[in-house]
Structures are given as C-alpha cells and as structure tokens.
Amino acid sequence: LDVSDLIWPLFVHPGAGSQAIPSLPGVDRLGTDVVVDAAKRARDLGIPAIAVFPATPPELKSADAAEAVNPENLVCQTVRRIKAAVGDSMGVICDVALDPYSIHGHDGIVREGDVVNDETIEILTRQAIVQADAGCDVIAPSDMMDGRVAAIRDGLESAGHTNVQIMSYAAKYASAFYGPFRDAVGSKGNLGGASKKTYQQSPGQADEALHEVALDLAEGADSVMVKPGMPYLDILTNVKQTFGVPTFVYQVSGEYAMLSAAGQLGWLDRREVVLESLLGFKRAGADGVLTYFAIEAAEWLSKLG
Ligand code: PBG
Question: Based on CB atoms within 10 Å of each CB, which residue in 49, 88, 206, 269 is the most buried?
Fold first, then answer.
C-alpha cells in the first residue's frame, strides 16, 4: 500500500469556509476559498488524483437537472481553479450523474416514475463535455445507465477531448452504504426514500458485475470501478482476474462512517483499521482506492515510509 494508490473524493459547496457533514465526521464540504489549498495539500502528499462532488443549492436543482450541463456550475468552476493551480501534477476526476442536480435525487431523468435510459444518456454526454472543457482529466460515470460509456466516448472525441479518460463505475451496487454521501451532496431529501434499484445492481448478483464490466470496456472505458468496497471484495478480485484492466474500488461513505464511528467510540483503532482496510483492497486486486481517508492515510504512509 502506497500513497500513489489513493484517490481523494472531496465535496465542494458554493460558499466560503468548511461545512461539517454530521454523518461523515472529519469530512467537510469545502468552500471556494479553501478547496484549492486542500487540493494542493493532497498533491504535495503524493496523492495522484482527486474526485470532485458538488453540494448544489436547492434553487439550482430542477427536474431536468439543467445545472449539470452549465459550464459555469460549481464543479466546472472548481475544476478550472484547481487545474490552474496544480496543472498536470495531479489528476482531477469528475462524476457524471444527475443526482446532485435533480429535484428527485435520481441519477437520470424521470418520466412517469421511471428513470429513462436514453434521454438520460444525452444529458450525461453533455455533462461530460462541459467537465472536460473545464479541464477534468478523467470522467467517471456513476449513473449506471446502459450504453452511456459509448455515448460519452463519442461525445468527448467530437469535442476534441481525445485524451480525457473514462473511469467507469462499472459494477455499482444499489447499496445502503451510500447514505452519508447523499447527506453530503444534499440529495437524500430529494430522493425521499426512493431507491436506485432499477439501475444499480442487486447485491445478490455476482455474474452481472462481469457482464457490466465487459460492456463498459467494449464501449471504451479506460478503467473500471467496483463499489462499494469492503462488502464486495469478491467482485473486485473477480473483475481484476477476469479482465486484467486498471481496476479501482470505492471505499464509500458508509464504510468511512462505520470505521470512523467505531474509532471515535474507542471500539476500534482508527489508524490500524483504516490501513488494514486499504491494504485489503490492494490484496483483492485494486490498482487504486477512492477513499475519504486519503489525506490521513497518506500522512500515515509517508511517516511509515
Ligand atoms: C451518485 C454517486 C453516489 C456515490 C458516488 N456517486 C451515490 C449514489 O449512487 O446514490 C456514492 C459514494 C459514497 O457513498 O461515498 N451518482
């Protein structure tokens, strides 16, 4: 396990200063005045990439999630400012999905109660292009629509972004471990108890993950992701062994919350369990881990090193 294995997902909000997220103790939504310094700190620690997630003000949310394709939205502005500061010394990853922007909290467009696949793909492709225009290095579609990787690849090529990579959330399960993330981006209330089970995978399905990965690779994904992490290590190993492609894993918000809470209560040793969980991902076959512990783990690892 090395600092170069870590990818740091961070939350941004449009105001100043840091905002605490109660279900993610120790993880803040970063304000526009602090986010660039935070990114530089990650870079200085040797973290190769960050992933930027926005908390969109309620008044900018809509049924068609139009703010997702606004070239001046919070993510695009943040990416421009971070890239201006760090250049090529650190990669920036942007999520492609509509949930931070939609009034219903779903990752796609909803018609008569259902998320509609093809109409969603059109807007996701436009979202990917505005993010690439802003300077994002890696587009990470987390929406789980069918056929979106091919459409996004085509869109990026037509817009001249031939070097922008696609890291596809290929095996993404409909998981209760995403709860604190939905608090962080403010989509939980919008979702109002609805589930994403019509487009994310069923936790009992193993083979379907391989099918989804095969499709995304055939459509042009440069790397794939398995998510959540710890309850799905079997999937991670299977994907890595079957395809041998760059394979990432997301230690999601609920996993962070669990380890953090047990550490706070003194029931587990935070440092030991965090490093053990990250090492476990490496052992299972991950080429890199998205983790909210990235900064802390990088500090521990560099002192160890
Ligand atoms: C949404 C998205 C989610 C996460 C990353 N992108 C949540 C969801 O699918 O509801 C979860 C990450 C985490 O829990 O840390 N497209």
Answer: 49
